[in-house]
Amino acid sequence: MLSKLLIRGATILTMEGPDAIIETGEILMEDGWITHVGLPGSAPGYFDMDEVIEADGEVAMPGFVNCHTHAAMTLLRGYADDMSLMPWLSEKIWPFEDRLTGEDVYWGTMLACLEMIKSGTTCFGDMYFFMDHVARAVEKSGIRAVLARGMVGVAPTGAAALTESEELVKNWNGKADGRITAMLGPHAPYTCPPDYLGKVMDLAAKLKVGVHIHVAETRTEYDDMLKQYGKTPVQHLDSLGLFKLPVLAAHCVHLDQEDMEILAQKAMGIAYNPQSNMKLASGIAPMAKLLDLGATVGIGTDGTSSNNNLDMLEELRAGSYLQKVGTMNPEVLPAYRTLQMATIDGALCMGLGDRVGLIKEGMRGDIILVDIKQPHMCPQHNLVANLAYAANCGDVRTVIIDGKLVMLDGAVLTMDEEKVMAEAQERAMRLAGK
Ligand SMILES: [Zn+2]
Fold first, then answer.
1. Distance from the CA of 288 to the center of ligand 1, in angstroms?
2. Where, residue-wise, is CATH 3.20.20.140 in the chain?
3. What is the pLDDT of residues 18-41, one digit of tens each?
4. Which residue ranges make up the annotated binding site for substrate?
C-alpha cells in the first residue's frame, strides 16, 4: 500500500520561478514522491491519507542543500578559532582528528544531522573519513547525503583511502532507501599529486561516480601550484583531465578569467562557502562572475570548526551580502537567486537535480515548513526577501525528507536529541584531552 502524506494550508514556494508561489495550497506525497501540488481540495484521495500536516501560517519550500561540509567536525566546534589556515590545520585540527574513532565520527555526524534537520537542511555533501559511520548516522537520522571519503594522496593513508572509497561506493551508493549517494573525495590538488589523482580518476570512471574536491581555497595554494606546475589549480586539474568527470569543486576562491571559464563550462558544480572563507580570511570567491558565465553554484557551510555552525539560512544570507560588498554592486545575488543556490542549484552541483530542490510532481519529497507568523517576518511585502534576508533557523518548524516526516513542529522524530548532544559533548572533551 502507498504511504500518503498531505501538507495543506501552506503558502508554497516551489522554487520554479520567483512568482511560482501558491498562496494557499497543498502538496501530496506518495511513497516519497511528490505526486500533486495544487490548490486546496485538489489532491486526489483526500480522505485516505496516512498523515495530514496542517500548515496554516507556514511556507512550504524545498529543503536546503548544503553542498560542502565535513559533518563530524561538529566535535571540533569552538576548539580552535581565529588562526591562519596552515597552523590551524597542522597544530590543532589534524592532531585532534588523528584521535577520532569511528564511533566518534558517528556521534559527531549525528550531531551535525540533528543541527541540519533543525535548521531546514535536507541534504548535505560530506567529505570525511570513517564513512561507514557517517553513512550509519545518515541512515538513522533520515537525512539525505552525498558522501565522499576524503583522500590525501601525500599521506601514509593514501593507498588505503582509495580502497575505502571503493568500499564506500560499493556498500552505500543508493542505500538508505536511496538517500545516500557516493562520490570520490580527493582532498585538494596540493595534497593529491598528479599520479594519485590519476588513480582517483580511473576509479571514479570505473565506479561511475563523481568527484568532490577542494580547489583554489587560498592564495598560498594558488601561488604554490603556479610555482610547482606552472599552472593555476583549476588549469592544473583541467590538464589532468579531471573535468571529464562530474566534479563538485569546493571553495574556488582564487581564480583567473580562464579558470572561471573552465569551471563554468566543465564543472558539474561549485560549492560556495562564504563564512568559512571569511573566517579563515581566504578571500572572496568570484561567484557573481561565475554565475554570469553560466556556472552552477551551490552553497556550503564547510565544517563547523571554520564557520561555526551548519545554518544554511545564515550561510546564504552571508553569501549574498559578501558578493554585494565584494563587487560593490548591491544587484548581484538577489534574494531569489540566492535561495535557488541554496536549494535546486545545490542539488544540481551534486548530481541530484532530477530528484530534489524543487516542489514539483516527480521529485522526491524533501520539503520544509517555515513559520512566517513571527515579528521579524512581518510585514509580508515580499515572501522571498523575508526568507532570504530576515528568516532565521528557528523558524523552520517541520521537515520532510524523502516523503517521510523527520521533524514535526520543532521536534526531531528520528533521534534522541539529548542523547546525541550528551554523547558529542563527552566525546569532544575526551578528544580535546579534558
Ligand atoms: Zn572543506
1. 21
2. 64-349
3. 889 999 999 999 999 999 999 988
4. 97, 149, 187, 217, 302
Closest CA to 414 of 167, 75, 139, 63: 139
Of 254, 255, 236, give the one whose Cα is nearest residue 193: 236
Report CA(69)–ligand 1 centroid distance (Å): 6
| 266 CA → ligand 1 middle, Å | 21
Determine the average pLDDT of the residues in 351-371.
98
Asked if 291 and 329 count as a contact pair (C-beta separation under 8 A), the reply is no
The CA 70 to ligand 1 mean position distance, Å, reads 6
The fold of the 4-62+365-412 domain, in CATH, is: Urease, subunit C; domain 1 (2.30.40)
Cite the annotated binding site for Zn(2+) by residue number. Answer: 68, 70, 214, 302
Q: Find the largest Cα–Cα distance for the chain.
A: 68
Ligand 1 (single-atom ion) residues, CB below 5 Å: 302
- Predicted local confidence at residue 1, as pLDDT: 59
Bind-site residues? 68, 70, 97, 149, 187, 214, 217, 302
DSSP one-letter string for 246-266: -EEEEE--S--HHHHHHHHHH
Specify the fold of 64-349.
TIM Barrel (3.20.20)
The pLDDT value recorded for residue 41 is: 86
Residues present in the chain in total: 434
Residues of the chain with CATH 2.30.40.10: 4-62+365-412
Distance 76 CA to ligand 1 centre (A): 14
Q: Express each pLDDT in 309-339 by its tens digit.
A: 999 999 999 999 999 999 999 999 999 999 9
**For residues 78-106, average pLDDT:** 92
